[in-house]
Specification:
- The complex is a heterodimer of chains A (about 120) and B (about 110).
- Chain A is mainly beta and about 120 residues long.
- Chain A has no helices and 11 strands.
- In chain A, strands 2, 4, 5, 6, 9, 10 and 11 form a 7-stranded mixed β-sheet that branches. Chain A has a 4-stranded antiparallel β-sheet with strand order 1-3-8-7, with no helix packed on it.
- Chain A starts with a strand and ends with a strand.
- With about 110 residues, chain B is an all-beta fold.
- Chain B has strands at about 5, 10-15, 20-25, 30-40, 45-50, 55-60, 60-65, 70-75, 85-95, 100, 105-110.
- In chain B, a hairpin with a 6-residue loop joins β9 and β10.
- Classes of the chains: A mainly beta (about 120), B mainly beta (about 110).
- Chains A and B meet through β5, β9 and β10 of A and β4 and β5 of B.
């Protein structure tokens, strides 16, 4: 099956620093990758959609300068949380979509804690 | 119109029982309806999915029932096991977009 990995699985950082999260599709080429944020006991909130080689499309209310997304290849997308603050602490999950009417396969998530 | 409403919020079932989770939607352009299972601290995993041209799809103990006229679909877990205890999300998507619209989730607890 389609496997998506994320790195790191958890990160603790100081307020004001930037954190980069990687999302990789291991056994398929993903034309589209998605970044979600999930609060405890809540549903997934789509942050942005990224297509390889083009700028990400952000959902309403998501600060694009705060959450930088780069999709440099068909197997790698990165999310950088810039100048992180405690309110950015959350569970961040990526997913990768197959070309055509494919489904999304989710990564294992990254737990970010900003002190 | 983009919402997917999911119920119940939580569900407790005895081992061996049937777990039923329901979802409803408004957008008739939705044409792909997956269910995801998520364990604590993990990403969602695709469980089963259906398209509106069929009324039911079964994979092992998991069955999706789809009612196009009522714009409702449900997940049935037969012979529920403690290992099924997780949060389940329904979702919907149009064929022209990769974006998934998620339901609010159902926390299932299967008691031994």
């Amino acid at each position: 099956g389609a496997v998506v990995s994320q790195h790191p699985s958890r990160v603790i950082c100081k307020s004001g620093t930037s954190v980069k999260i990687e999302c990789r599709s291991l056994d398929f080429q993903a034309t589209t990758m998605f970044w979600y944020r999930q609060f405890p006991k809540k549903s997934l909130m789509l942050m942005a959609t990224s297509n390889e080689g083009s700028k990400a499309t952000y959902e309403q209310g998501v600060e694009k300068d705060k959450f930088l997304i780069n999709h440099a290849s068909l197997t790698l997308s990165t999310l950088t949380v810039t100048s992180a603050h405690p309110e950015d602490s959350s569970f961040y999950i990526c997913s990768a979509g197959l070309a055509g009417p494919g489904t999304q396969y989710f990564g294992p998530g990254t737990r970010l804690l900003v002190l | 119109q983009q919402q997917v409403k999911q119920s119940p919020q939580s569900l407790i079932v005895q081992k061996g029982g049937i777990s039923i989770i329901n979802c409803a939607y408004e957008n008739t352009a939705f044409d792909y309806f997956p269910w995801y299972q998520q364990f604590p601290g993990k990403g969602p995993a695709l469980l089963i999915a259906i398209r509106p041209d069929v009324s039911e799809k079964k994979e092992g103990r998991f069955t999706i029932s789809f009612n196009k006229s009522a714009k409702q679909f449900s997940l049935h877990i037969m012979d529920s096991q403690p290992g099924d205890s997780a949060t389940y999300f329904c979702a919907a998507r149009t064929d022209s977009s990769y974006k998934l619209i998620f339901g609010s989730g159902t926390r299932l607890l299967v008691r031994p």
